[in-house]
């Protein structure tokens, strides 16, 4: 049997060749983490990274079954996850009503490509189907809600990035980044700041939304910055612009708040490229730093 480091390297290489590897984790490890969560063994983030928490959870799964607690995932260990772990991504078409390891892997890839579907749970329900269809539209594929070879091929493409450069809306350290958070996906970045701190437009553009937005956003401003990029500035205590206004980079558009679903005052800054959520750091200069412990943040993904 391969040692764990060699097995991990082999798995990572195989996943890269298959086009489902990402710098922040792999779809198969994310699916494993979802399976371990279902067994009540793992409480960490579904981030696709085989770290200490995942290894300890695997060892406990093995221990419960009377197997050597190696922390190494082989065929025997995978079988301990039962029906959930039978199907690997690409082994069958996925549509509403399917569930399992392959669905969890699909949810992970959809989220990283800008179409999170809520809880990463391995269940292809209404929200995952909707995310899948939005991705199909974005990728120019038939919107049939079925993840087959064409969808998986599109998910092997590099992650979308911002085609333009923007400025930081707040000159403060970043809190929570773009990416997995618990069993959900955080589609923007959070910047903790004192209440009523002025929020600046990250670039020139036109205000296309300004006001209260349901779904946890609170007071929110959306600015179309061109080239298919829209920036969303959420949880504001007050809004200082109106739909149709043209703003310039650095212009104050509102004040930091904690409206909507938030644990404290901060700005949730989200970028969309033709509707796909993209990492704002692909448009911004290097961050000033990060707040220890993440600081105030949203309470939804």
Structure, described:
There is one protein chain. With 301 residues, the chain is α+β, with helices and mostly antiparallel strands. Helix content is 26%, strand content 21%. It is built from seven helices and 14 strands. Strands 5, 7, 8, 9, 11, 13 and 14 form a seven-stranded antiparallel beta sheet that branches. The protein has a three-stranded antiparallel beta sheet with strand order 6-12-10, with no helix packed on it. A hairpin with a 2-residue loop joins strand 1 (21-22) and strand 2 (25-26). Helix 2 (27-38) crosses helix 5 (101-112).
Secondary structure blueprint with pairings:
Elements: H1 4-17, E1 21-22, E2 25-26, H2 27-38, H3 52-64, H4 75-79, H5 101-112, H6 126-139, H7 149-155, E3 179-181, E4 184-186, E5 189-192, E6 198-200, E7 205-213, E8 218-226, E9 229-236, E10 238-239, E11 246-247, E12 252-255, E13 266-273, E14 276-278
Antiparallel strand pairs: 1-2, 3-4, 5-13, 6-12, 7-8, 7-11, 8-9, 9-13, 10-12, 13-14
Helix pairs in contact: 2-5
CATH homologous superfamily placement of the largest domain: PGBD-like superfamily/PGBD
User: Can you tell me the overall shape?
Assistant: globular
Distance between the termini: 39 Å
H/E element order: HEEHHHHHHEEEEEEEEEEEE
Query: What proportion of the residues form beta strands (DSSP E)?
Result: 15-25%
Number of helices: 7
**CATH architect. name of the largest domain:** Orthogonal Bundle
Please indicate the count of domains: 2
CATH class of the largest domain: Mainly Alpha
Overall average pLDDT: 91
Query: What's the total number of strands?
Result: 14
Largest sheet: 7 strands, antiparallel
- Kindly name the structural category: alpha+beta
Low-pLDDT parts are 1-23
- What's the CATH topology name of the largest domain? Muramoyl-pentapeptide Carboxypeptidase, domain 1
What Rg do the Cα atoms give?
A: 20 Å
Helix content: 25-40%
């Amino acid at each position: 049997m391969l040692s764990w480091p060699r097995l991990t390297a082999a798995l990572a290489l195989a996943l890269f060749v298959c086009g489902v590897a990402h710098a922040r984790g792999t779809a198969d490890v994310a699916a494993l983490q979802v399976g371990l969560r279902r067994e009540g063994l793992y409480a960490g983030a579904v981030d696709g990274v085989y770290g200490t928490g995942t290894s300890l959870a695997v060892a406990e799964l093995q221990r419960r079954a009377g197997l050597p607690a190696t922390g190494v995932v082989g065929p025997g260990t995978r079988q301990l996850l039962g029906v959930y772990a039978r199907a690997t991504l690409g082994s069958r078409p996925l549509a509403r009503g399917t569930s399992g390891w392959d669905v969890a892997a699909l949810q992970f890839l959809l989220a990283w490509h800008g179409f999170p579907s809520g809880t990463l749970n391995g269940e292809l329900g209404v929200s995952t189907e909707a995310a899948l269809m939005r991705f199909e539209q974005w990728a120019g594929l038939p919107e049939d809600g079925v993840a087959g070879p064409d969808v998986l091929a599109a998910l092997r493409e590099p992650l979308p990035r911002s085609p333009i450069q923007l400025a930081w809306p707040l000159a403060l350290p970043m809190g929570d980044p773009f990416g997995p958070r618990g069993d959900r996906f955080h589609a923007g970045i959070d910047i903790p700041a004192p209440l009523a701190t002025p929020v600046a437009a990250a670039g020139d553009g036109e205000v296309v939304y300004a006001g209260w937005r349901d779904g946890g956003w609170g007071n929110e401003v959306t600015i179309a910055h061109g080239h298919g990029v829209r920036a969303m500035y959420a949880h504001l205590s007050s809004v200082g612009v109106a739909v149709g206004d043209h703003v310039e980079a650095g212009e104050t558009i509102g004040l930091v708040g904690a409206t909507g679903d938030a644990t404290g005052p901060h700005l949730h800054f989200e970028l969309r490229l033709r509707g796909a959520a993209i990492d704002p750091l692909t448009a911004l200069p290097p961050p000033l730093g990060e707040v220890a412990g993440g600081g105030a943040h949203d309470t939804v993904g």
